[in-house]
Amino acid sequence: MDDPYAPPEAELLEAQTASLAYAGFWIRVGAFVIDTLLLLAFTQPLLVMVYGWEYYGLAEAGATGWWEYVVNWVVPAVAVIVFWRYKSATPGKMLLRVKIVDARSGGAPSTGQLIGRYFAYFVSTIPLGLGCFWVAWDERKQAWHDKLAHTLCVRVPR
Fold first, then answer.
1. Average pLDDT of the chain?
2. Interhelix angle for 75-87 vs 25-51, to 10°?
3. Which of 24, 25, 113, 158 could make an SS bond with 135 (beta carbons 3.0 to 4.6 A apart)?
4. Structurally, how many domains does the chain consist of?
5. Alpha-carbon distance 35 to 93, whole Å?
6. Which helix (H) or strand (E) holds 153?
7. Which residues pair with 152 in a beta bridge?
8. The pTM is what?
């Protein structure tokens, strides 16, 4: 153990998660693309139902109402967190056999971790997406939002 000040269980927990197959950059990009397409297939018809086809002109002019905020921000946040909580993955991650686990134990993350992970996405994307690209260089394939929430994305064996 390199850190003499680390708690005694730190080495044991690292050993538990070291045997996991971390999900790399490209598989996570694939899951993200799938999830984005699914969310668009759900949210865009809702917006057209509320605003009509004029929505696309209104959105450019910034003249939409609170429904746009609910459909584009609240619904996706709730859907993603609920999927993470009950399935440990979004549909894209499930299709590509990836799941989110606690970085310390390898078990299911807490609801608080998952909510924190969702909002930490903003931290990952603000500096030109650097926090998301971090997966490509990180030893445990963690993006910044994973590091902040103490989670890992791992491959699920067949």
1. 88
2. 140
3. 25
4. 1
5. 8
6. strand 151-155
7. 101
8. 0.83
